[in-house]
Design goal:
Largest sheet: 6 strands, parallel
Radius of gyration: 25 Å
Number of helices: 14
Order of helices and strands: EEHHHHEHHEHEHEEHEHEHEHEHEHEE
Oligomer: single chain
Strand order of the largest sheet: 4-3-5-6-7-13
Distance between the termini: 61 Å
Strand content: 15-25%
Length: about 350
Amino acid sequence: MTMSNTGGRRRPPTIHDVAREAGVSRGTVSRVLNGGHYVSPAAAEAVNAAIRKTGYVVNRHARSLITGRSDSVGFLLTEPQERFFEDPNFNVLLSGCTQALAAHDMPLLLMLAGTKDERRRITRYITAGHVDGVLLVSSHSGDPVAEELRKAGVPLVQCGKPMGPGSKVSYVAADDRDGARDMVRHLLSLGRRRIGMVTGPLDLPGGVDRLAGYKEVLGEAGIDIDDRLVVSGDYSRASGEAGAERLLAQAPDMDAVFVASDLMAQGALTALARAGRRVPQDVAVGGFDDSVAAVEATPALTTIRQPYDRISAEMVRVLLAQIGGEDAAAVILPTELVKRDST
């Protein structure tokens, strides 16, 4: 810190202090701060050493006036606020994206927009230029946010495949269909034949693809799809509990159930225990995500691991590339079967 001339109050170091300490011009310091173009390695090293010594911090507001960029990114969740706190997957994604952006010295702004009015306000805020790009999580079919932001020219990466045909939105997704196939094959390998499913929301790509994988493997095994063995959920614990109750009422001979999220599977375990069904002896249970809910469940859940660390890193990589002028991109990452006590 540098002493001011008024009252001995400390003032933050400026770009002039850095230039003086490094023995270079203010313009050279500015070029280093903006990417180091046309600066010799020796000068860049001197400037970076001066920055460390003086404790200089970039004035992002001043720089944004020059560059037209905010140097920040939005993490937009189009779900009710209570879902953010209930579902551990959102927190894992948020943490991973925050860490990935920290390597680029960019802050991440959490935005929750669970209602139409909230989505309208957030869309106005984003398109006004307050963030350079958006990481969009949980975009339901018919939700116009993604397409509105894309048409407004806002760099955007979605977590999960877009639902609309011909969408040009960048996305990063786990291979939901293949993960579901692995789980149902595992349940079949245990000799289970009356396999139920609690699906995720069918207006989300993960919900659609996990159901498709379930049906595909049963078809390959020559097992007819029984509508009584399929009920829908919304990824909440309560919907998993209610779904398992419906399955037990509709198909009491069910000997396994694939639940499309670990949090819903926790609810399903509660319903099975209340009905006196032992897990896995009477009913084997498989989840999806490999979230903290899987290891906290009793018994611990066999599940499909989504590579959340890679998903977060890829979302940030694709978004920063888009902010830098690159075209839209799609990334699909493999899942992994994790066997525990519930099967």
